[in-house]
Amino acid sequence: MAQVPAYTKAEEQLERIFEAFKEREIQRVFYVACGGSSALMYPSKYFLDRESKNITAEIYNSNEFIHRNPMSLGEKSLVILCSHKGKTPETTAAAKFAKAKGALVVSLMYVETAPLAEESDFIVNYSWISAGNMEPNPEIMNYAILYKLAMGLLYVKEGNRKYEKLVSSLQHLDTVFEKLMKTYAEKAKAYAKEVKDEKIIYTMASGSNYGMAYSFAICILMEMQWIHSHAIHAGEFFHGPFEILDENVPFILLMGLDETRPLEERALAFLEKHGKKNLVLDAKTFDLTGIDEEVRGYIAPLAINFVLRMYALALSKERNHPLETRRYMFKIPY
Amino acid sequence: MAQVPAYTKAEEQLERIFEAFKEREIQRVFYVACGGSSALMYPSKYFLDRESKNITAEIYNSNEFIHRNPMSLGEKSLVILCSHKGKTPETTAAAKFAKAKGALVVSLMYVETAPLAEESDFIVNYSWISAGNMEPNPEIMNYAILYKLAMGLLYVKEGNRKYEKLVSSLQHLDTVFEKLMKTYAEKAKAYAKEVKDEKIIYTMASGSNYGMAYSFAICILMEMQWIHSHAIHAGEFFHGPFEILDENVPFILLMGLDETRPLEERALAFLEKHGKKNLVLDAKTFDLTGIDEEVRGYIAPLAINFVLRMYALALSKERNHPLETRRYMFKIPY
């Protein structure tokens, strides 16, 4: 087949978007999506917050975005949306809404054509695990594409060189993932056995890792396993939520490598003292060979997410509750 | 005693801050606090998002704010902080951090002197229920002061006239509260009896009301009642969390009067169809006489919060678990 390889295609799509970045002023980035697709965007906002002199970044649920109707949304806005199959109605409506306001609209999706694509100025197709593609390319997975857009934007607009370090580092992500697969295969199974009968499991993180905690709580535990959950911000933990903790309450603490790590370390000390059912996934223990020191804080959540996915699979097997099982989603009208 | 009345004092403090607004350019507002004090700020961000042409608003946990260290924080930033007793160490540190960056630093607190005051350019003292003050003035309660700051800022900077409508409306809030007290006293007790043995209660809302859902989940249920909880955004509900719902899972849905109400209505329809333990607090049923139509959407969360406080008290009595009981907070080092 003469099909263009997925990597080349995504790169070409990104190049065209970077050209569009050069042609217009951008003051604000709005990250707009629902559920797991929204959670993907938290690390990119963290990057823009830390590194941009002039461009602000906000994250909104698609329907909230439309109804909140931010007054500053306009021609100097970049709206980045994501929907796996490009068919989430609220996200498609949000793209249309943003375009009508004159914003530059860029949408990520796994599929090549979809309603969301029709409402967008540009699309990028990311790689994903599916029946026909069991070896996705981490360099063009959704998180990676989102970073390329954010870092590419600051490269174009503010001369920020993290983009280059990102691109060279992402080439090593498959090796990082392979090693994590080996290290965590048995650990994930053991954990699944331990917690299979728990009714509630909290997740916790801060900074660029918070989105992973949110995603695991709402998509994996609540949606796919019907286990009660809540993503707690590691800084907020000490101002209310920690009172819920005793020896019987399971917590999953994600520890990354970004500047907010002291918040996660503080939460760890507390969990170790007062909790007994803790799972700590610490990126400091990961072999990140090939990932540039300057972007490790940003890339750690991608590695953590890979490990979390292994825990999700192990949990679903141990509980005999496939990740695909739903009672409502896509099954009834809502 | 020749003491200045609290209302007059707060007004004088606000006047001085508005003068400071006139004297400098403000591009970004950072709302910085922890837990319940942070939740207070969500409605003000909603207002700025909807109504400001040029000024952006962000909400950060105090410790996240310091470590995230947003690059755009600087002389054109207004940082608004809040700590009830002005002694939250992370919030005091955040004020100091913001001041060192050249930002205009305004802090809300209940007390008159505190470490946080020393690190701030301006303070505003709000009114609150306490042993010595059982009849706080709703016009200068924390939510009201925060709105006065946000609406005052846009009045000064962009000629937005909502400030005037806010001030005249707030004069009627005590009457609104009195009527709500009568309507909800027995309802709150009945609900408390119903759910007293529940292990988990979710809260849900969108837009300007989401902060109330967050506050009730983390401060009242988790912190003060040791009941598992999670504030779910009504738009996000349909993209993961709703799979947790069955007839045995209690939800508290807050329905406000702002532009995102359709999200809450959609959640209501789903809860009514698939859940059986729903508490719906709907501001549409409140008697809001005196509150200007143009600001009802913004003021509804204050009324909802008043009602929620009644439910919290009823719950604590029914469960024989005083709201002041803690296992960790202020009792052990953390």
Automatic annotation (TrEMBL), chains A, B:
Documented EC number(s): 3.5.-.-
Protein's UniProt keywords contain Hydrolase: yes
Keywords associated with the record: Carbohydrate metabolism, Hydrolase
Matches recorded under PROSITE patterns: SIS
InterPro entries, per the entry: FrlB_SIS, Fructosamine_deglycase_FrlB, GlmS/FrlB_SIS, SIS_dom, SIS_dom_sf
Every SIS domain range: 17-159
Domain of life where this protein originates: Bacteria
Keyword Membrane belongs to the record: no
Single GO MF descriptor: hydrolase activity
Pfam families linked to this entry: SIS
Complex and partners: Homooctamer.
Described purpose of this protein according to its UniProt entry: Catalyzes the conversion of a range of fructosamine 6-phosphates to glucose 6-phosphate and a free amino acid.
Entry-linked PANTHER family: FRUCTOSELYSINE 6-PHOSPHATE DEGLYCASE (PTHR10937:SF14), GLUCOSAMINE--FRUCTOSE-6-PHOSPHATE AMINOTRANSFERASE, ISOMERIZING (PTHR10937)
Protein name: Fructosamine deglycase
Organism this protein belongs to: Paenibacillus terreus
